[in-house]
UniProtKB/TrEMBL annotation, chain A:
Source organism per UniProt: Salinisphaera shabanensis E1L3A
Subcellular location: Cell inner membrane
Principal subcellular localisation of the protein: membrane
GO CC terms, sorted: plasma membrane
One Pfam family named in its UniProt record: BPD_transp_2
Recorded topology in the membrane: Multi-pass membrane protein
Protein name: Branched-chain amino acid ABC transporter permease protein
GO MF annotations, alphabetized: transmembrane transporter activity
InterPro entries linked: ABC_transp_permease, BCAA_transport_permease
Membrane spanning residue stretches: 12-32, 61-84, 96-116, 136-158, 187-209, 264-283
Keywords for the protein's UniProt record, in alphabetical order: Amino-acid transport, Cell membrane, Membrane, Transmembrane, Transmembrane helix, Transport
Family classification: Belongs to the binding-protein-dependent transport system permease family. LivHM subfamily.
From TrEMBL, chain B:
Molecular function as annotated in GO: ATP binding; ATP hydrolysis activity; L-isoleucine transmembrane transporter activity; L-phenylalanine transmembrane transporter activity; L-valine transmembrane transporter activity
Classification via SUPFAM superfamilies: P-loop containing nucleoside triphosphate hydrolases (SSF52540)
Keyword entries, A-Z: ATP-binding, Nucleotide-binding, Transport
Signal peptide: none
GO biological process terms on file: D-alanine transmembrane transport; L-alanine transport; L-isoleucine import across plasma membrane; L-valine import across plasma membrane
CDD domains (UniProt xref): ABC_Mj1267_LivG_branched
Protein name per the record: ABC transporter protein
TrEMBL record, chain C:
Positions in coiled-coil regions: none
GO cellular component: plasma membrane
InterPro entries, A to Z: ABC_transp_permease, LivM-like
Protein name: Branched-chain amino acid ABC transporter permease protein
UniProt-recorded Gene Ontology molecular function terms: branched-chain amino acid transmembrane transporter activity
Keyword Cell membrane: yes
């Protein structure tokens, strides 16, 4: 039983990280209808900015996460301005190829600067809490609490602020949003900024219990895609729920089935789901 | 020709087309009109097979089209045009039309690999068909022009030609005169008449009321997915229900 | 000017290129260059496959590198672990590419646009994970060494660079010839109609699934065959062959040369391969150049080298003719129109 609860905790940790990354991806998809293949690279850059701020500048963990959020948000906005905005009317495969271009570029730059070695970020919170037979490393608790507070903050932002409400409106109906005179450029930039910041924070939270390396974004990106297909492309609650589903199935599957193939689980889920329902699990009707 | 009974399409709880029954006679021009969002395009998509109806029967020459795929419906002789027909910009007008007759050919990959007689015959037929339809729509002279250099009105005609290349008996035209000037509209009207003269049944959606009133043999009026009126242009024009539906939206005569 | 461009793109040019390729090993005494060229040809074969599904048919397949790796592994496993000679193993690679492509195609091609791209990205990753983790079959991260080279049956020795170069060249010529056949036939037109729009293609009576799966299977056979040749020349392979990077490399080749054109895949592959060679230090960090180049290409030159040439020629041809055409149109369409309008109104 304890072992099971332990896996649930692990699943929750994974799920909240995946959820954060998927949230950004789904927001961007909702606004621009671009599957942003560069999102995983933004996540990776976030981890490296954290690493740099802590290891090279010797600053505090929280400062590092904030720095990562700001830097990556800015990069994300630059990508929108320089790449996705000019391509918004291009044939559908072009924006995807451009996103891949950004991904390759960012990875190569990071690799040139830091090399391909695995790096670690020390967690400032090494305590381990014991609760009954359950082991709770403080960093994992931090991830869960941090991720969910961020999701809560995002929810408030989208519900309570004007820009937030516009993002939601535009995600639901782009053409309609143009008609009522929404400044689409501002909304798109804001969305990319949020998406970048979320990815960076996710990377910063996860890095202390994981490794930092140039290709670290690949799997996370693919899983985030699986999640948003699962939850419906463009759906915010879908991203969170999908993140948890993948997080739990990975933790439990990795423990009870096979730890070698735990990374395959998400993709098998995807293949099964799309084989049955080609438009995703929670989508209403086809456009 | 086309007999539609109790056709319904619901999205979620909303009925985009609700219990519409109508008969379209062969060799006539049938028009579907109605205010924006009345369900005209959905109606077209149902007949062309782009989406399956929730309920109802679409009987075409004794067969029920409901639930059939668009390509099999096209092979049965129902062609359609789109509001904006995407064409292959980087090739010539004639080149664009050749694929239109593909559905009447049988060549497979194997024929392509060995360059079989059947393939050669098929290609010849497709080319002839393309030239023939191009002549039909009056554009033989621009066959070798690139699509990127054609006018809006020429594109409309090319779209007609592409649909005609499939050897249809029923043609669904989605806003055939959208975005062209009145003079050009007259030319397209003539072309539609010419199609009917050659034994084709036409069914069209259009916003240009004066054009509809001039050419349609039969009009059905949709509003909020329901058929509110049908008949000759004269009957529909004087139907109080129709005037009511259009009131405040646009003048039915304009 | 038009003549020059026609010449550049016409069949004369293709024969000239072939002749150049044939004499290339005779004019250079640098064996390494011949080897690089042979490898580039192998990649070009795979890029021709990608051109069929992505260029002609418009479906961005991000698992293409995975199929290349599958072809290489089929040859490697059959020759090393099962003692097969190269040629039967090579045939098996093509066949397996077709069968596996068919299965993946049936599932993935029901998905549209983004979903298809994301799905195939995942398929590519599953292939990579499988190769990396299924040690009993693939030797895992150790890779497979001592792969059998193509047998020359006592006539030629394909472990030598120059004979192998000509072997690969023959396959490349076959690949281009086949692509040309397909592209210029009704089948190619069918694929391009799908690329324009699924809806349009269907309204013309084209069965989407059947044609997309066909294009996909053709492309995976190209990829698997290229992979098989690769295994035969390099004779050592590892899970890295299934890395995404290779798929992205191929996208870059395709885009630089001209997506959906006949000579684009070859030109793109050669240009980038030799540019990378010219700046040796680029090899590892080539993506610093490739990445932004991909972005700039899709924004400013989405049609690549060959496509841009074709567009240029098209516009020139169009400019030559307009005056003549306008007059003849008036003559043609008016008289008939007036008649039938009258007839209708009176009826």
């Amino acid at each position: 039983m304890d072992l099971f609860l332990q896996q649930v905790l692990n699943g929750l940790t994974l799920g909240s990280i995946y959820g954060l990354v998927a949230l950004g991806l789904t927001l961007v998809y909702g606004i621009l209808h671009v599957p942003n293949f560069a999102h995983g690279a933004l996540y990776m850059v976030g981890a490296y900015v954290c690493y740099f701020t802590m290891a090279d500048l010797g600053l505090n963990y929280w400062v590092a996460i904030a720095a990562a959020a700001v830097v990556v948000a800015a990069m994300s906005v630059i990508c929108e301005r320089l790449v996705f905005h000019p391509l918004r009317h291009a044939p559908p495969i072009h924006d995807k190829i451009a996103a891949i271009g950004i991904l390759l570029f960012l990875e190569a730059v990071v690799q040139m600067y830091w090399g391909a070695d695995f790096r670690r970020i020390a967690s400032p919170y090494n305590q381990i809490l014991q609760l009954g037979g359950l082991t709770l490393p403080a960093q994992r608790l931090l991830i869960i609490v941090g991720a969910f507070s961020l999701m809560g903050a995002l929810h408030l932002y989208l519900k309570k602020t004007m820009t937030g409400a516009t993002i939601v409106a535009m995600a639901q109906n782009r053409e309609g949003a143009f008609l009522v005179g929404i400044d689409a450029n501002r909304v798109a930039m804001m969305t990319f900024a949020i998406a970048g910041a979320l990815a960076a924070v996710a990377a910063g939270l996860f890095a202390p219990i994981n490794l930092v390396y140039p290709a670290m974004g690949h799997l996370v990106l693919l899983k985030a895609f699986v999640i948003i297909i699962l939850g419906g492309m463009g759906s915010i609650p879908g991203a969170i729920i999908g993140g948890l589903i993948i997080g739990f199935s990975e933790a439990l599957g990795g423990f009870y089935l096979s730890s070698t193939y735990k990374d395959v689980i998400a993709f098998v889920l995807l293949v099964v789901i799309l084989s049955i329902k080609p438009t995703g699990l929670f989508t209403k009707g086809v456009r | 020709m086309l007999s539609i009974r109790n056709l319904t399409k619901r999205f979620g709880g909303l009925a985009a087309v609700n219990d519409v029954s109508v008969e379209f006679g062969a060799n006539q021009i049938n028009a579907i009109i109605g205010p924006n969002g009345a369900g005209k395009t959905t109606f077209f998509n149902l007949v062309a097979g782009a989406m399956p109806p929730t309920e109802g029967v679409i009987e075409y020459k004794g067969q029920d089209l409901a639930g059939k795929s668009p390509d099999s419906i096209a092979r049965l002789g129902v062609a359609r045009t789109f509001q904006t027909t995407m064409l292959f910009e980087e090739s010539t007008v004639l080149d664009n039309l050749i694929v239109g007759h593909r559905l009447r050919t049988e060549s497979r990959l194997w024929d392509v690999l060995i360059n079989s007689k059947r393939l050669k015959a098929d290609e010849k037929r497709c080319r002839e068909k393309a030239a023939e339809t191009l002549e039909f729509v009056g554009l033989s002279h621009i066959g070798h022009r690139y699509i990127a250099d054609t006018s809006q009105e020429e594109r409309k005609r090319i779209a007609f030609a592409l649909a005609l290349a499939t050897d249809p008996e029923l043609v669904l035209l989605d806003e055939p005169a959208g975005g062209v000037n009145p003079e050009e509209t007259d030319g397209l009207v003539d072309l539609i008449h010419k199609m009917v003269d050659h034994g084709i049944t036409v069914c069209l959606i259009e916003h240009k009321m004066d054009m509809i009133m001039r050419i349609a043999d039969k009009i059905i009026v949709l509003d909020h997915g329901e058929k509110i009126s049908e008949g000759t242009p004269e009957q529909v024009k004087n139907d109080p229900v129709v005037i009511e539906a259009y009131l405040g939206k646009e003048d039915a005569e304009a | 000017m038009n003549r020059a461009i026609d010449f550049l793109l016409g069949s004369t040019m293709r024969w000239l290129l072939l002749a150049l390729a044939v004499i290339f090993p005779l004019v250079t005494d640098n064996e390494y260059h011949i080897y690089v060229m042979a490898l580039a040809f192998i990649w070009a074969i795979a890029v021709y496959g990608m051109n069929i599904i992505t260029g002609y048919c418009g479906q961005l397949n991000l698992a293409h590198g995975g199929f290349f790796a599958i072809g290489a592994y089929v040859v490697a496993i059959l020759t090393v672990d099962h003692g097969w000679p190269f040629w039967p193993a090579f045939l098996a690679a093509g066949l397996f590419g077709a069968v596996f492509g068919f299965v993946v195609g049936i599932v993935s091609l029901r998905l549209k646009e983004h979903y298809f791209a994301i799905f195939t990205l995942c398929v590519g990753y599953i292939i990579y994970l499988m190769i990396d983790k299924w040690e009993a079959l693939t030797h895992g991260s150790l890779g497979i060494i001592n792969i059998a080279p193509p047998e020359g049956f006592g006539l030629v020795d394909f472990t030598q660079t120059i004979p192998f170069y000509y072997l690969v060249l023959a396959f490349l010529a076959l690949a281009i010839w086949l692509t040309r056949r397909i592209s210029e036939s009704l089948l190619g037109r069918t694929f391009r109609a799908i690329r324009i729009s699924d809806d349009l293609a269907q309204s013309l009576g084209i069965n989407l699934m059947r044609n997309k799966v066909l294009a996909f299977v053709i492309s995976t056979v190209y990829a698997a065959a290229a992979g098989g040749l690769y295994a035969g020349v390099v004779r050592f392979i590892g899970p890295e062959e299934a890395n995404f990077i290779h798929t992205f490399d191929m996208i870059a080749y395709l885009l630089v040369g001209g997506i959906g054109t006949l000579m684009g895949p070859l030109l793109g592959t050669l240009v980038i391969t030799w540019l990378t060679q010219a700046v040796q230090s680029l090899e590892e960090y080539r993506m610093i150049v490739f990445g932004p180049m991909l972005v700039l290409l899709v924004i400013f030159f989405p049609r690549g080298i060959v496509g841009t040439f074709l567009g240029w020629r098209g516009r020139r041809m169009a400019r030559q003719a307009p005056r003549k055409t306008r007059e003849s149109r008036v003559e043609q369409s008016d008289p008939h129109g007036a008649d039938s309008k009258e007839a209708r109104n009176n009826a």
